[in-house]
Specification:
The structure holds 2 protein chains of 2 kinds. Chain A is mainly beta. Chain A has one domain: OB fold (Dihydrolipoamide Acetyltransferase, E2P) (Beta Barrel), CATH 2.40.50. Chain A contains 3 helices and 8 strands; from the N terminus they run ααββββββββα. In chain A, the strands form 2 sheets. Chain A has a 5-stranded antiparallel sheet with strand order 6-5-4-7-8. In chain A, strands 2-1-3 form a 3-stranded antiparallel sheet. Chain A is globular, with a radius of gyration of 16 Å. Chain B has 2 domains: about 130 residues, Thiolase/Chalcone synthase (Peroxisomal Thiolase, Chain A, domain 1, 3-Layer(aba) Sandwich), CATH 3.40.47.10; about 210 residues, Peroxisomal Thiolase, Chain A, domain 1 (3-Layer(aba) Sandwich). In chain B, the strands form 2 sheets. A 9-stranded mixed sheet of chain B has the order 3-2-4-7-1-8-11-10-9, sandwiched between helices. In chain B, α7 crosses α10 and α9 crosses α10. The longest helix of chain B has 17 residues. The two termini of chain B are about 20 Å apart. At the A-B interface, β4, β5 and β6 of A face α5, α6 and β5 of B.
Chain lengths: ~140, ~375
């Protein structure tokens, strides 16, 4: 993953910047030129909350080379209160305990290293909330 | 539009074919089709291929493959739509014949996956690189998330998933071209290695090499090449959001439903008229999602359809009589054409031990990515 490619994604990936469509209100993350919901072109910036709920998840046992030493790890589609959905690893917990409905907080973490140059690539990972663990 | 027929079909065996290169695989299937039809020229060639570039460092497959079969000069185009490349190559060829632009068009698919490439990474190029792959997802991982969402929404179980594999391996055991022509027990499937929970090794299609090709011509010229042409009655294609997170319901493959609706409307038939179907079972959960989205079974019966025998040979609607991607193998670019070949042979009564008696209408559904592409064809015996 070359550096300019990483740099371009910084606003959404590192700052959780999204866009709320002025036409239909859908929150698009990352922002797009046109809303996939209504094809509207007007939007206002919105920063996503750092809390979310797991929609669906899995535990990866056979990992890609870049994540080989992390397996097994949990990864999920999460939804923030703004209804933005995206993928994130779920960490700091037993991967087998992760499942749909789980409440998580989003924390700034190291995600991967660029294959050859080795620069560090950041983003958000999900961590089960204390209150969710208490409930279950 | 002119009516279009398939007049000849051929494929290599599927498997780990170490002695065969990408170009040799294509040439073997293509030359076999040309020989069967007895033609001395082609008007056009389509080559379905997902990732010659990543798997073996070879792009520009159109001219390469035309040249390999002594047809340099003929228009030849590579079609890419991830694992749906083959099906969409057929659809493209269909329109070229239907439009009247060409009379003899070769629709083919080829993939060489076992040549040293990191297959997990190459397959992941069909997912969203920035939003999905960046975070460490794999293809089995995406379908595992679909499976878990399906379990959550419809009560589907690991046993339901496992029965799909058991059924398709029973079918595949009857197919001499299959990569794994052997049966597995439910216990073997359910105890196989975890790949991405809840999917295990025996819920996943294998890494395969192979090629497949069919020859298309206008229906009114078909008798020149065969006594038993098979008509392409309908074709439908659709897309869906690329990233799983952007789909309304991660447990439902809306592109499959949409592509099927379009193919059925064109064909003037419905799902209840289909006698035999090949669907894209890249993972056990995808067969369940596909038969439900295609309307081949009631939504409430989809998860249990393999266990109940509904979709087994001898059942109401036999699905994946070839063994499916699971047992036959899944050389990704070739799969869509190989599915068509199974239906072509079924409708001609050439399927031997896995023949569906009296089949006159068949369906093939081919999918790309985690369901971002789907293409459906409906074939009819004449």
């Amino acid at each position: 993953m070359p550096s300019p490619r990483y740099w371009r994604e910084v606003p959404s990936r590192l700052r959780l910047e999204a866009a709320r469509c002025s036409g239909c209100g859908k929150v698009n993350y990352p922002p797009r030129l046109i809303c996939p919901g209504c094809r509207g072109k007007e939007s206002e910036p919105v920063t996503l909350s750092k809390t979310a709920k797991i929609i669906t998840s899995t535990v990866i046992h056979i990992a890609p080379d870049d994540f080989l030493f992390e397996a097994p790890y949990a990864i999920a589609v999460v939804e923030t209160p703004e209804k933005a959905r995206f993928m994130a690893q779920v960490v700091d917990c037993d991967p087998s305990s992760v499942g749909p409905g789980m409440d998580v907080s989003l924390e700034f973490r190291l995600i991967r290293k660029e294959a050859r140059s080795g620069i560090l690539c950041y983003g958000f990972k999900a961590v089960p909330t204390a209150s969710w663990e208490a409930k279950s | 539009m002119r009516e279009v027929a398939i007049v000849a079909a051929a494929m290599t065996p599927f498997g780990e074919l170490w002695e065969m290169s990408l170009r040799q695989l294509f040439a073997e299937a293509a030359l076999d089709v040309i020989k069967k039809a007895g033609v001395d020229h082609l008007d056009s060639i389509y080559v379905g291929n997902m990732s010659g570039g990543c798997f073996v460092g070879q792009e520009h497959l159109g001219p390469l493959m035309a040249d390999q079969i002594g047809m340099a000069g003929v228009p030849s185009t590579r079609v890419e739509s991830a694992c749906a490349s083959g099906g969409i190559a057929l659809r493209t060829a269909f329109f070229e014949v239907a439009s009247g632009a060409s009379d003899l068009v070769l629709a083919s698919g080829v993939e060489k996956m076992n040549d040293g490439a990191d297959v997990t990474n190459v397959l992941a190029t069909a997912a969203d690189q920035e939003l999905e792959v960046y975070h460490g997802i794999t293809f089995p991982g995406l379908y595992a998330m679909i499976a878990r969402a399906h379990m959550e929404a419809h009560g589907t179980t690991e046993e339901d998933l496992s029965w799909v594999s058991v059924k398709n391996h029973r079918h595949g055991a009857l197919n001499p071209k299959a990569q794994f022509p052997r049966e597995f027990t439910l216990e073997q499937v359910m105890n196989s290695t975890l790949v991405a929970e809840p999917l295990r090794l025996l819920h996943c299609s294998p890494v395969s090499d192979g090629a497949a090709a069919v020859l298309l011509c206008p229906l009114d010229q078909a008798k020149k090449y065969t006594d038993q042409p098979i008509k392409i009655l309908g074709t439908g294609q659709a897309t869906s959001a690329m990233a799983l997170a952007d789909r309304k319901d991660p447990a439902f493959l809306d592109s499959v439903q949409l592509s099927a609706e379009r193919a059925f409307a064109m064909a003037g038939v419905g799902p209840g008229d289909i006698n035999v179907a090949e669907v894209h079972d890249c993972f056990a959960i995808s067969e369940i999602c596909c038969i439900e989205a295609l309307g081949l079974v009631e939504r409430s019966q989809a998860a249990g359809a393999a266990a109940s025998g509904l979709t087994a040979l001898g059942g109401r609607i036999p699905v994946n009589t070839s063994g499916g991607l699971k047992a036959k193998g899944h050389p990704v670019g070739a799969t869509g054409i190989a599915q068509i070949i199974e239906i072509f042979e079924q409708l001609r009564g050439e399927s031997g031990a896995r023949q569906v008696q009296g089949a006159s209408l068949g369906l093939a559904q081919n999918m790309g990515g985690s369901g971002a592409s789907s293409v459906v064809h409906i074939l009819e015996r004449m």
